[in-house]
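Intended use. Records such as the histidine kinase entry shown here are meant for training and evaluating sequence-to-structure methods. They are not intended to support clinical decisions.
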Amino acid sequence: MSRSHKFDDSIRNPFFSLVGRRILLIMILLSGFFTIFTTLLQTYWDYDEAFDLVDSRHYEIEHIHADLLASSLWIYDLTSVQERIDGLINLPHVDYLAVRSENYLFEAGSPLDVSKMVNEYPLEYDDPDTGKIQRIGTIYVESNTNAIYNDLIQHFFITLLLNAIKTLIVCYLILLVFHHTVSQRVFKVAQFLRQYNPLDPNEEKLTLPRKRYIMEKEDELDWLAAETNKITQNMSTLYRNIMLERERLSDFTHVSSDWLWETDADLKLTFCSDPMRLAFDLNPNQYPHLDKLLSAVGCHQFMANLHRQQDFSMCEEIVPVEGESRYFVFQALAHHGIDGFRGFRGTGIDITALKTAQFELETLNHNLEETVDERTRELQENMEHLKAAQEQLVESEKLAALGSLVAGVAHEVNTPLGIAVTASSVIKDIAHTLNQAFEEQTLTSTQFASLIKQVNDSVIMLENNLKRATHLIRDFKQTAVDQVSEALTEFDVKQTIDALVASLHPETRKIPVTPEVSGEPDILMYSLPGVITQVVSNLVMNSINHAFDETDNPKITIEFERQGDHLYLCYQDNGCGVEQSLHHRIFEPFYTSKRGRGGSGLGLNLVFNLVKQKLGGELQFESAPGQGVKFMFLIPLSLSSQIARYASESKE
């Protein structure tokens, strides 16, 4: 019978189940063994019990009935003796009794000629008159042991038969339960796996049959079915991926212009792509040894790499293909197993076009050096022109700032001078009125007092505005001198910055904003005051031009303090701020957010260069959108002669 027929029969009939039959056989053998053992043990117990009953019966005759029989014989009550032994013969396990005395013999039952148990006890009478014990005879007892043996054997076989029937019935029922709960479900799993097709996209999931009352809601076989479904699904996915990769690799192999090849441990080709096969005119049914093929075309370096049986790459060879010498680069992976070297898998890439380009490039490089030298000289000249133009732009930016300062201060000075002119005109008119009244002798004391009061008020107004104009001109003069002069000098930091802020008032009032200056008084620096005023002026103008377009309460703070032998200067506003992505660009030359609206993009670049190159200081910048900007400077309080000399050379 074929395996498929056995499989089908095992599903239908539990007795065809190999596992079920084996379990049934084991259960029968084990149950039979324990049945025989327990039956023998029970028979042994019954044997002991039966012979104990015989012994107890003989004991009863010896100790109870023997005294009664002895009394009857002593008084010669022979009828009573016979009646007693006739009654005793009816007791179980008593088959023959015989009472013997000197002159009499009494019997009951028939003597046995089979296996028997025999006992003979003395008949003694205790004479109450003399007090002596008189022996008057014996009592002989026979019990049939053969019947006991027959009963025990019969009981043994009946018990064994009943246990065997019970065992067979129980085993059959267990076999049926096992068949429905285990065998059929295992066969269902096996049948599902036998019919499983990993390429069938509509493959149904495994569902096991279920019997009520003899199965749990979910048992180990249900777990096995669930895991089987997972495994088959994974196998289907894996198999489809493998087939897809195989198809993809096959397509790549056929359309690839590169050479793909594989050898065994003896360096015999086991696979090669079509371009390689066509190049060497190989028979696909009988590939040659690769080393012999390479020897024929003179690829000795390739052969040496193969014989080393190790990975190699960048092996360049010239291979004749269709009568033309072609350049190839070969590389391969050597595969090793437990039994040693197993072969190569490698590629060959046609680099003829690259080689041709390389030769042409080498030829071109010889002619390129002179061209590069010429272009380098032109580039250097252009860089020098660009540097000069940049310096000119920087100077223009400085002069433009100074021009703006001059225009602002001129406008600012016009106000107190205009008031002074007005006051002088008023004084002149009052003097004319006073002289005329005096000449006409119409001047009264009241009029005189009123005119004198007007003169005094006008004089005070004239004096105050002339002082204000003088102060403005002094601050402007100092600031202008500082901005155009880069000579080393000792100056008071607070006075210099205050004078600068005052000179910038025409610009700051346009917002309006008043810079707040706070710092330690009497800090003296031996440095370049014009550079410092230029730095602060550019920062203020940068805030005015860019920061406060959407700020309700504009504010600028300038703080400074001494830190060792350095001046720490912090400039901060509460304007619109700068995005994080633009932090690295704000100091770049010509970068501005108001291109075409008056911005040159050189203000902060000039600040950076002045602080770094002329003042020898350090600069840090912090900002976030909507939180203003913060510039922090650390400037030496005293410039060394080297820095001063470097600043002078930079100016030249």
